[in-house]
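Format is chain and fold; as here:
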Amino acid sequence: MATLTIRDLDDEVKARLRVRAAHNGRSMEAEVRAILRAALTGPTPRRGLGGQIQQYFVDLDDDVEIPLPPRTELPRAADFSS
């Protein structure tokens, strides 16, 4: 088993950890182990928005074409004078 030292822990965080450990009937060290175990062995984090959008459209055929609307005005330079 490895040993981990945590330096510069805020007093407020330490106090909340002590209360949480007492509430769960554990030592502070056992509470930290439980927190780390839960955080690192839980379900894989959800994908970001781009991954979710891709998953939504993954079953579409490759030959799907989305018609682009016609451009009604010519492109113009951005105005940064404001």
In short: The two ends are 61 Å apart (CA to CA).
